[in-house]
Amino acid sequence: MKKNKPLYEFFTAILLLLSLLFFSCATQADFDFSNIDSAIAKNDFPAVYNELESKSNKLYGKHDEVLEFLDKGIVSHYSKNYKDSNEELSYAEKKIEEYYTVSISQTISSFLVNDTVKDYQGEIYENIYSNIFMALNYLHQNEFDESMVEIRRFDIKLKELSLKYQQRIESAKQEMKNGSSSVPDSKLKFHNSAFARYLSMLLYRTDGDVDNAAVDLKLLRQAFSLQPEIYNFPVPKNLNEDINIPEEKARLNVIAFSGIAPIKQEKTLQIPLNSTYYKIALPEMTKRPSSVASIKLHVSSKTSNWNTTKNIEKLESIENIAIDTFKQHYTMIFIKELSRSITKATTTGILSEQADRLAGASSIFLNIMSLTSALTTEFTERADVRTTRYFPANVSVAGITLDPGVYDIKIEYLNASGHILASQEISDYQVQLGKLNLIEDIFLR
Fold it and tell me: Can you tell me whether residue 408 is helix, strand or coil?
């Protein structure tokens, strides 16, 4: 049987196109993170960084520069490479600002294919918490003025980004001809960070500005009282002691990061519209489970038999904030996905209807085009699940007033049964009068 050569070549071209589209739409969800996850479980952050470097060509595409530098910046912080971390996070911040106004060509291509062909711009929480980690980097380098600048930038960016997103959402909803009633709510609950206030309070206290430290403590408490959906746990006890330190005493503060940040997973929705529905693929921010139920601080003097144990109490849920701030981006994605799905489905339907009305070669050609349109939609409709994987889920803090001197310190992470999951011992820690005696620890499980 003789092949129809033009038709055969047409089908071959279509299959080749679909194959290219499929592979070009590969996402982070297709990568095997087992080696990285294993290194994280061991708190071996230099090994995590090495994996990010050695597998960068598989982990990051040409549109993932922001993602790569956010990942590396956070892992560098955990590795105590504070200068490198600030350079990486600062570069990511610069690129986020640059990408905020998306190029026309990327907007068109993402409408035809999906959002993975756009430069990753970072989520709101990734953008603002990069400043918090830069503030911590500066703290560890005793550059307190620079640290305070980053905390202020966090606060300013949170307000500005939320407003900009909301304006874009309202504008996009007005431009929609159909389906605006299906658009999910995009109002944020998060507007004030207890952790940012806590760091600012410590900086003011160290600088001798007790009045401003007291203002930050008040704002910290308001973060809990005015955002109960975000701060759905008790305020840490004895925070007043952080600004009421006797002159002859010193204060030791501990920050413990536990759990690991949410990731995005693809989900599909069927959106009703008139007498039919449209299927769209969307990213969903999903929490990752943590086995940590409590954290303990043990402090013992090197010069006496004195020792004590305190709870390190939860201050901030970064995972709650990540999910809340993702609402605005999700709404923008939903609007775009819905519009794209409607356009593609309408195109497929028109081609099919026209094919039914015609006969012969024209009908065959339009049926082929209709099938191609449907297959292209099936191949290219993938959710953009890119996200930074290495922020902690929770921030816990403790403070203890001590005589200046040398102490042995142990931090323990326990599960719900009281079993110790991990511990960190710090020997011969010098607690100094009038200084910021700050210990940071990490257990991302």
Answer: strand
